[in-house]
């Protein structure tokens, strides 16, 4: 009987250990992007205006309405440094609108890209396109003090005045004036996050005719719509900086050989005004 009791005790300890370990894995695999459900919270990149937040850390919800009068309501928001908020964005208009959070310089650069490529579909954590009558959410942690902008980057909307400001105050920080700029330390990190992509350890060296290829990582495969969401580096042949975007594919068969998390080299061309992947290759990781 004592031997049986000892075996039962050992089994109970083993099961308990498995429960603890699996619980730790579940926490580490928590997804923070409500659309792609890919990124791990400890991997959320820091930018000059903060980083993607975690649902369980949301301190409050801020409602923002968008209208066809090219207005955000409210047009000003105040948060504290380190605070995680849910931005609940509602489109009260009859046409699509975007909510894009960032610094003035970055948004200005991005607006110029949108004018050249109006069919761009963003998939970054700080952007959201909302259809008429719909509501979307962004969860964001404002880790840096300063004054930042939220704008609609659909061509013509920001030019008409569709802009709001978020002022982030810190206990020991001097809030920057409404220029959309940040201290150099934060700006340097943001540039690294947005402008560069790490090279996969064993990625093959492109051949002489591969200069059009862009490096990236698959974030989502949408076979129904025939689209790939890719976090990519600079698209040199189109003059686009690194970001996360959704692309159509020229041939649906291209999607059969890739999955979320794959490192790829791909070629994007503008066809009939739309951005389309015409070739894609998996690379070693």
Keywords:
285 residues, alpha+beta, five-stranded mixed β-sheet, 3 helices, 16 strands
Q: What can you tell me about this protein's structure?
A:
With 285 residues, the protein is α+β, with helices and mostly antiparallel strands. The protein is 18% helix and 34% strand. The protein is built from three helices and 16 strands. A hairpin with a 2-residue loop joins strand 15 and strand 16. Mean pLDDT is 75; it is low at 11-42 and 173-209.
Low-pLDDT runs of 5+ residues are: 11-42, 173-209
Biggest beta-sheet profile: 5 strands, mixed
Amount of helix? 10-25%
Task: Write the H/E string, N to C.
Answer: HEEEEEEHEEEEEHEEEEE
Mass-distribution shape: globular
User: How far apart lie the N and C ends?
Assistant: 54 Å
Q: What is the count of β-strands?
A: 16
Q: Strand share of the residues?
A: 25-35%
Radius of gyration based on Cα positions? 22 Å
Q: Widest sheet: strand order?
A: 1-9-5-2-3
Count of DSSP helices? 3
Q: Could you tell me the mean pLDDT?
A: 75
Coarse structural class: alpha+beta
């Amino acid at each position: 009987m004592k031997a049986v009791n000892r075996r039962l005790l050992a089994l109970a300890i083993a099961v308990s250990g498995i429960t603890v370990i699996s619980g730790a894995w579940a926490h580490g695999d928590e997804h923070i992007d409500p659309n792609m459900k890919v990124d791990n919270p400890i991997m959320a990149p820091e930018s000059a205006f903060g980083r993607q937040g975690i649902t369980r850390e949301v301190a409050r919800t801020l409602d923002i309405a968008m209208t066809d009068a090219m207005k955000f309501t409210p047009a000003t928001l105040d948060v504290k440094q380190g605070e995680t908020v849910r931005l609940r964005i509602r489109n009260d208009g009859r046409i699509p609108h975007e909510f894009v959070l960032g610094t003035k310089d970055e948004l200005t650069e991005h607006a110029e890209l949108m004018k050249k490529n109006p069919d761009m579909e963003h998939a970054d954590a700080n952007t959201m396109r909302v259809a008429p009558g719909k509501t979307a959410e962004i969860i964001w942690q404002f880790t840096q003090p300063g004054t930042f902008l939220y704008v609609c980057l659909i061509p013509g909307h920001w030019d008409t005045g569709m802009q709001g400001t978020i002022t982030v105050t810190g206990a020991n920080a001097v809030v920057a004036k409404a220029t959309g700029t940040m201290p150099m330390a934060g700006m340097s990190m943001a540039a690294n996050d947005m402008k560069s992509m790490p090279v996969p350890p064993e990625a093959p060296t492109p051949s002489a005719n591969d200069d059009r290829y862009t490096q990236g990582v698959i974030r989502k495969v949408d076979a129904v719509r025939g689209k790939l969401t890719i976090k990519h580096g600079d698209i040199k042949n189109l003059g686009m900086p690194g970001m996360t975007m959704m692309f159509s594919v020229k041939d649906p068969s291209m999607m059969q050989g890739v999955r979320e998390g794959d490192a790829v080299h791909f070629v994007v061309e503008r066809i009939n005004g739309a951005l389309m992947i015409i070739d894609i290759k998996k690379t070693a990781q």
